[in-house]
C-alpha cells in the first residue's frame, strides 16, 4: 500500500465504525440471511427430495457456525466452491487476497482489516449456498430490497414526476427554444447535476447500514425527492467534482456509458433516471449497467433486482413509470453481473489486467453510482 494513504480501517478502537459493524450490524445481517434461507426451505414443495432438504439444512448449520466464529474471533476458513471459469477466477482472487496476510494468527475475525472482513462474510454466505441445489440461486436479501422500494414510494413518485418533466422537455426541445447554445449547455449541466445528486443521496438507503430495517416504517424521511430537498442537503457534500465530470460528459455524443450500480430500491431508480437522461440528451446511445454477481452488502443490485424493478415500475398503478417504458427501448438496457466489485480488495488494488475488467474497455465513460 502506498505510504501516502492512511492505514486500513481495523477493529482496534471499540468506538469506531468497523468495531461496531462487526459487533452489532454483521451478526444481525447474517441472522436475517439465515432466517430467509430457512423460510425458503420450510416453503419447499413436495418435488424437493429428502436429500436436497438435508443438503440445504446443512448450509443453515454452516452459516450458524460462521456466525459463532465471527463473534468469537475464530480463524477465517478458505472458500470451497468455484463453479464456472469466472467463479474459479473469483475464487483465486479471494484466495490470493487471503494469502496476502502474513500468518494464520492474523487470518482471524477481529484481526484482519474491516473491508476484507465484511466482504468475506457476504462471499462466505454465497459460498455455502452454492453447496445446496435448493439454495444456490436464492437471494436471502431479496425481500428486504423489495420492501425498501415500497417504503420509498412517495419519494419515488416525486422523482418520477421530475424525470417525466425533463423527458418531455428534451423530447419537445423546450430547453433549446429561444436560448443560446451556451444557455442550453448550462441548462443541461444543471439537469445533470440534479440527477447526479439524486443518485448520491439515494445511497442513504443502504440496507447494510440499516441492520434493524424491517419494512414497518417509511424511508421517505431519509431521502431526497425534489430539488428543494437537494438544496437542504448541499451542506453535507464533502467533496464535489461535478464540474470536472461534466466536462467529460459534455464531450460525449452517442457514447457507450457503463454504470457500476450500488444499491437497489430508490438509488437504482435514480440511476435509471440519470441513464435515461444521458440518452435523451444525446450523450449516450447505450447504457450498460453492472450489478453484483451474487447478493452483496444486503441491498446491492443484482441482475434479478434490475429486472424486478423495471417490471414493478411498468406494472405499478401508483408510480408513474411511463418513462421506464420508453427508456426500456431507447436505453438499450443491458444488465451485466460482475464479480469485479465483489471481492475483498479496495478499488485501488484492483488491476486492469483481470479478465473481469475487459467489459469496461470499450466504454466512453465508466461511472460508479
Overview of this protein structure:
The two termini are 25 Å apart. The chain is globular, with a radius of gyration of 22 Å. Strands 3-2-1-4 form a 4-stranded parallel sheet, with helices on one face. The protein is built from 12 helices and 4 strands, in the order H-H-H-H-H-H-H-H-H-E-H-E-H-H-E-E. By secondary structure, the chain is an alpha/beta fold. The model has no long low-confidence stretch (mean pLDDT 87). The chain has helices at residues 17-42, 50-72, 85-99, 114-129, 142-150, 153-172, 181-202, 227-233, 242-249, 266-280, 303-315, 322-330; strands spanning 255-260, 284-292, 334-338, 365-368.
Beta-strand fraction estimate: 5-15%
Q: For the residues shown, what is the average pLDDT? A: 87
Give the strand order of the largest sheet, numbering strands 1, 2, ... along the chain. 3-2-1-4
What's the SSE pattern? HHHHHHHHHEHEHHEE
The biggest sheet amounts to:
4 strands, parallel
Name the shape in a single word. Answer: globular
Specify the structural class. Answer: alpha/beta
Give the radius of gyration. Answer: 22 Å
Relative helix content = 40-55%
How many helices? The count is: 12
Amino acid at each position: 500500500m502506498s505510504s501516502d494513504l492512511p492505514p486500513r480501517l481495523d477493529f482496534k478502537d471499540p468506538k469506531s465504525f468497523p468495531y461496531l459493524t462487526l459487533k452489532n450490524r454483521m451478526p444481525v445481517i447474517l441472522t436475517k440471511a439465515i432466517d430467509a434461507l430457512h423460510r425458503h426451505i420450510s416453503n419447499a414443495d413436495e418435488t424437493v427430495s429428502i436429500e436436497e432438504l438435508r443438503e440445504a439444512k446443512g448450509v443453515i448449520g454452516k452459516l450458524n457456525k460462521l456466525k459463532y466464529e465471527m463473534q468469537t474471533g475464530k480463524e477465517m476458513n478458505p472458500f470451497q466452491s468455484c463453479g464456472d471459469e469466472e467463479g474459479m477466477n473469483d475464487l483465486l482472487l479471494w484466495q490470493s487476497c487471503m494469502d496476502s496476510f502474513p500468518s494464520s494468527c492474523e487470518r482471524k475475525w477481529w484481526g484482519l482489516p474491516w473491508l476484507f472482513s465484511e466482504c468475506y462474510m457476504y462471499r462466505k454466505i454465497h459460498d455455502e449456498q452454492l453447496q445446496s441445489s435448493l439454495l444456490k440461486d436464492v437471494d436471502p436479501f431479496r425481500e428486504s430490497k423489495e420492501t425498501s422500494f415500497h417504503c420509498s414510494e412517495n419519494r419515488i413518485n416525486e422523482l418520477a414526476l421530475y424525470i417525466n418533466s425533463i423527458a418531455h422537455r428534451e423530447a419537445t426541445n423546450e430547453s433549446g427554444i429561444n436560448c443560446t447554445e451556451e444557455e442550453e449547455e448550462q441548462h443541461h449541466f444543471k439537469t445533470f447535476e440534479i440527477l447526479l445528486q439524486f443518485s448520491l443521496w439515494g445511497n442513504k438507503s443502504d440496507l447494510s447500514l440499516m441492520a434493524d430495517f424491517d419494512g414497518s416504517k417509511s424511508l421517505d424521511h431519509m431521502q431526497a425527492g425534489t430539488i428543494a430537498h437537494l438544496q437542504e442537503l448541499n451542506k453535507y457534500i464533502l467533496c464535489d467534482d461535478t464540474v470536472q465530470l461534466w466536462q467529460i460528459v459534455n464531450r460525449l455524443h452517442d457514447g457507450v456509458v457503463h454504470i457500476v450500480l450500488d444499491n437497489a430500491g430508490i438509488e437504482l431508480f435514480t440511476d435509471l433516471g440519470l441513464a435515461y437522461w444521458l440518452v435523451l440528451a444525446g450523450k449516450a446511445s447505450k447504457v450498460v449497467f453492472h450489478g453484483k454477481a451474487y447478493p452483496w452488502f444486503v441491498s446491492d443490485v443484482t441482475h434479478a433486482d434490475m429486472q424486478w424493478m423495471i417490471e414493478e415500475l411498468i406494472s405499478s398503478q401508483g408510480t408513474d413509470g411511463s418513462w421506464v417504458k420508453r427508456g426500456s427501448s431507447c436505453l438499450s438496457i443491458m444488465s451485466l453481473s460482475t464479480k469485479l466489485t465483489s471481492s475483498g480488495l479496495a478499488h485501488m488494488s484492483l488491476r486492469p489486467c483481470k479478465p473481469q475488467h475487459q467489459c469496461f474497455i470499450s466504454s466512453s465513460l465508466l461511472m460508479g453510482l
